[in-house]
User: Fold Amine oxidase from Cervus elaphus hippelaphus.
Amino acid sequence: NNKWGHPRGYRIQTVSFAGGPLPQNSSMERAFSWARWDLVAWVTAGFLHIPHAEDIPNTVTVGNSVGFILRPYNFFDEDPSINSADSIYFREDQDAGSCEVNSLACLPQVAACAPDLPAFSHGGFSHNQVVLGMGNGAGTPGPGVGMGGDGP
Assistant:
C-alpha cells in the first residue's frame, strides 16, 4: 500500500537490466500469466510553459497544447509499413504531384480514400485540410495538393 493506504497500481523494480528484464527472466514471474490482467496507464498531463518577457502583463495560452501518445516500442521486428502496397518514395527535387513519380497523384478524386474536408476555422484561426496525392489526372496537382498553408 502507498502512504495513504491505497493499494499500489505498480511495483518498484530495483533491478532490471536491459539484457534480461524482469518478467521474462525472473523465476518468480515465469509462471505468471499477464493475459488475465488489464493493463492500466495513469497519464498526468500539463502545459509546458517557458516564461518570457512577452508574458507581462498576461500569459497567452494560444499555441499551447497538451496530450500524450501511446506507441508500441519493440512490438514489431521492423517497421510494419515497409510492406505497404501504397508506398511512394520520392526525393525533394521531384514533384510529388507528377504521375511519373507519384502514381497516386493521377487517381481521380473518387478513387481516393482521403475525405474532402472543408477549411477549419475557430476563434479567428483557420487551417485548410491538406491531402497529398490528389491530382487532376493530367499530371498537375489538383485542389488539396500541397505542403500546407493557412486558410482564407
Notes: The chain is about 0% helix and 5% strand. Residues 1-76 form one domain.
